[in-house]
Design goal:
By secondary structure, the protein is α+β, with helices and mostly antiparallel strands. The chain is built from 14 helices and 26 strands. Among the domains are: 155 residues, Dipeptide-binding Protein, domain 1; 238 residues, Dipeptide-binding Protein, domain 3. A hairpin with a 5-residue loop joins β5 and β6. α2 crosses α4, α10 packs across α11 and α13 packs antiparallel against α14. InterPro entries: SBP_5 (IPR039424), SBP_5_dom (IPR000914).
Length: 583
């Protein structure tokens, strides 16, 4: 017997606690730039130029991409992209002008876009131009890795419709006059509403907005309630492949892992996740689902992303805490206090793995430096090593917290701006409502105390945490952990570790790192990638944490089309459909 597909139906998706969709405007700023607002919300309605992930592999899906494969000239500096003639829901054709509109805004407002890194796209362009109604050219200032250009540069583009080219006074023309881009940006951000505000009242207006209702993806927004329930319906004007099978897709906010799990148990949601700690992978293979507590009524699907996990440390903090963070030996000691193997084995019960540096360990690839892989990272868990680092640099570690006894900037001294008598103590804010993360942070606190470092823990609502504890000058947070990290397209470091990058969460600036990053984007040589990641691992500008499946997805047994899992975190609910089981 085979399963018989059913046309229509409603599927409800449970959002991660504390992370409702916060931004609808695809030009998303760094403080809200993440999987939740982009890959699981915006891209259902507004298709990017290139779609990341194909059949579970980390590559471009050309069928789902608005742009065709770039064609390069003989110099290796200029490429031409043809735009497929998909339709916007207002009847207009997706075209070169829509790409130029985005590019003009990126040229003017790049630092306010989360994927922007100073010196890179669009700063590294000599020109970009419409060369036909359906073609755009990009000329770079030098020859770069074509793989990097495609995956890390051109994927930043989301074509924007003519209907968005306006201000409060009426239609504008930022598409052809870059001087108007600033005013159009301000209008669109006002239409989005405050990106930091947690109240949903401004989001309830998105569905009826004459701006945000113009879509080219397979879904359009039907409603967004004060309670954070998001409802999508199929875009009846969608002209791309794979139109939606379902009648509705609903996304519901949750406040905790436990609440979300009860929604699964009750049958109120069809796509949710098993709270970390509830699932056990007895074979220690986090890529495969183990025994399912929900039984045969659900499918257990680990969401393995091409990502790293870390906690940020704030280099821009203007206090003594910031002075301590700016000392490499302090960060190295902190990293040496983090027992990643404990986290992977005990907290995540076999569904985790140690993250040794800035390149994802899973899915397995030849991109990880052999030197890092062999050593298990530059600073594996070693409390005695942590104590020695501190003692060698002017701290009395016979007490906890350790006390600075040799101030100054010379050899064996604590470093600039750290007075005698200073206690080695940091506040660490982390995402509330996640018991596994709380357990991991408590273990880190207890281990760090043994080495002489006091960690003062504070739980904070997830969306508040990422809005307040991000990039920016003279922010007061010290250590911050939202329980995740970064999903890469191609794992060069310009987004996370380049000086001034919009998503340089630690506010780290390092000339040598910038130089090494620059090498990785001009060649496909693995040696350049190895040299860069080894320097990052040695310097520890973030504290690497055990990585784990973003979610252990629980999918209703009669819902099909969910797999394979996209390694970048994008979703395609237009592929989902119900079946009459055993028909």
């Amino acid at each position: 017997m085979t399963d018989k597909p059913i046309k229509g139906g409603v599927a409800t998706w449970a959002c991660l606690p504390g992370f409702p969709p916060a931004v609808i405007f695809p030009f998303t700023p760094g403080e809200r730039f993440g999987v939740r607002s982009l890959y699981e919300f915006q891209m259902l309605m507004y298709r990017p130029l290139y779609w990341l992930g194909r059949d579970g592999a980390p590559e471009i899906d050309w069928d789902l991409s608005v742009g065709e494969e770039p064609v390069w000239d003989e110099t290796g500096r200029t490429c031409v992209v043809r735009i497929k003639p998909w339709k916007w829901s207002n009847g207009e054709t997706v075209c070169a002008d829509n790409v130029i509109f985005w590019m003009n805004m990126l040229k003017v407002k790049g630092p306010r876009f989360g994927a922007y890194s100073e010196g890179y796209f669009p700063d590294n362009l000599v020109s970009f131009a419409k060369v036909a109604d359906d073609k755009v050219s990009f000329t770079f200032d030098k020859a770069y890795s074509k793989n990097w250009v495609l995956l890390n540069q051109l994927t930043m583009i989301t074509p924007m419709p003519k209907a968005w080219d306006r201000t409060a006074d009426g239609p504008a023309d930022a598409t052809h006059d870059i001087e108007q881009a600033e005013a159009v940006y301000e209008f669109l951000m006002a239409e989005n509403g405050d990106v930091v505000e947690e109240d949903n009242s401004h989001r309830t207006r998105w569905a009826d907005s004459p701006v945000w209702s113009v879509v080219n993806g397979p879904w359009r927004l039907k409603s967004y309630t004060e309670e954070g329930v998001v409802t999508f319906v199929p875009n009846e004007h969608y002209s791309g492949p794979n139109p939606a099978h379902l009648d509705e897709l609903r996304q519901v906010s949750t406040t905790s892992d436990e609440q979300q799990y009860e929604l699964l148990r009750s049958g109120d949601v069809q796509v949710g996740f098993l709270p970390p700690g509830m699932g056990v992978q007895p074979d220690g293979d986090p890529t495969k689902g183990g025994p399912n507590p929900l039984g045969d009524g659900f499918q257990l699907e680990p969401q393995i992303l091409f990502n790293i996990n870390f906690m940020a440390v704030n280099f821009s903090n203007p206090t003594v805490a910031g002075n301590m963070i700016r000392q490499p030996y302090v960060r190295q000691a902190l990293q040496s206090c983090f027992d990643q193997e404990y986290g992977a084995r005990e907290v995540y019960q076999g569904y985790g793995w140690s993250q040794t540096g800035s390149i994802p360990v899973l899915p397995k690839s030849d991109l990880v430096s052999p030197k890092i892989a062999e050593r298990g990272g530059f600073w594996p868990f070693d409390l005695e090593k942590a104590r020695q680092l501190l003692a060698d640099n002017g701290w009395d570690v016979t007490t906890s917290p350790a006390v600075c006894v040799r101030p100054g900037t010379g050899p064996g001294e604590a470093g600039e701006g750290i007075p005698a008598g200073t206690e080695l103590s940091f506040s660490l804010r982390y995402w509330e409502g996640r018991p596994s993360l709380a357990r991991l942070m408590s273990q880190f606190r207890d281990d760090a105390a043994k080495a002489g470092i006091e960690i003062r823990l504070e739980e904070v609502m997830g969306s508040v945490l990422v809005a307040e504890d991000g990039p920016g000058e003279k922010r007061m947070w010290q250590l911050s952990c939202w329980g995740g990290g970064w999903v890469y397209n191609y794992p060069t470091g310009e987004n996370l570790f380049q000086s001034g990058a919009a998503c340089n969460f630690s506010n780290w600036r390092d000339a040598k790192a910038d130089e090494l990053i620059a090498k990785t984007v001009t060649t496909d040589s693995l040696d350049a990638l190895y040299e860069y990641q080894e320097y990052i691992a040695e310097q520890a500008p973030v504290i690497f944490m055990p990585t784990f499946p973003r979610r252990l997805f629980e999918v209703a047994g009669n819902l099909r089309g969910f797999s394979p899992i996209n390694p970048y975190g994008l979703i395609n609910p237009e592929n989902w459909y119900y079946v009459e089981e055993g028909a």
